[in-house]
Amino acid sequence: MSGFENRLQSYSSTQLNELLEDDDKLRGMVREMEEMQDMQQNKELTIASNRSLAEQNLNLQPELDHQKIQLTKRYCCLQDLHESYQLRRSTLGNSSLDTLLALLQTEGAKIEEETENMADSFLDGSLPLDSFIDDYQSKRTLAHLRRVKIDKLREMVLKGVHLPQGSSTDPSQPQETHNSSAPFQRLANGSPAHVRPAPTSQASAMPYNPQSTSAPLPNTVPSYSCPHPQALPQEPGAGLPPRAGFIIQ
């Protein structure tokens, strides 16, 4: 740029006026500048680089089209699988284990029958060896898989049948709690620790005592059961006089 300024400074006023009127000569002088030459060179390099990148992109266009087609196919397959999953999920939610077991047993019996018919056809000579090996092996594999599924599903059904029986044992817990509190009642009444409980008929023959039914148990007696209580005598509660020959249950 400094060389161009020095060149203009050497011109006279007449030459400068002529240069202003001659556009071609002015453009030529601008082209001869070093800055413009460097800029032109960079422009050509950039154009060549862009052309090379465009050619590479065009070469990759067939692969891009192929990948787009594969993506479309896989997306369609994914939609089909999702619809099948939703259908099976709704069917499974509306069906019971017994129904599924019956359907699976039917399919298992069908594949067993198909393999037996195939074996009979091979023994009769109506089925070639190559097709028999491939088809029979695949069908037997499917039959074994269904047999395993049937066994697992039958086990689940049996476990489901036993679930209500486990829940029916819950009402017995209050009875166990009542029986476990008997040793503490015998100790509170001053009876020996190893005396067997009296029969039900003997307990029912006891005379009615309103004070004994309304009096609460002592606060020192815990409410939980203990397998080996300490045989320490305690003071009888108020309104509970000891009775000879009777053990309160």
UniProtKB/TrEMBL annotation:
GO terms for biological process: macroautophagy; multivesicular body assembly; protein targeting to membrane; protein targeting to vacuole; ubiquitin-dependent protein catabolic process via the multivesicular body sorting pathway; viral budding via host ESCRT complex. GO terms for cellular component: ESCRT I complex; late endosome membrane. The keyword Protein transport applies. Pfam families: Mod_r. Keywords: Endosome, Membrane, Protein transport, Transport. The keyword rRNA-binding does not apply. It is a peripheral membrane protein. One of its GO terms (molecular function) is calcium-dependent protein binding. Residues 165-183, 199-223 have a biased composition (Polar residues). It is found in: Late endosome membrane. Its main location: membrane. Residues 163-249 are annotated as: Disordered. SUPFAM superfamilies: Endosomal sorting complex assembly domain (SSF140111). Residues 82-167 form the VPS37 C-terminal domain. Component of the ESCRT-I complex, a regulator of vesicular trafficking process. Required for the sorting of endocytic ubiquitinated cargos into multivesicular bodies. May be involved in cell growth and differentiation. Belongs to the VPS37 family. This is VPS37B subunit of ESCRT-I b. It comes from Carassius auratus (Goldfish). The gene is vps37bb.
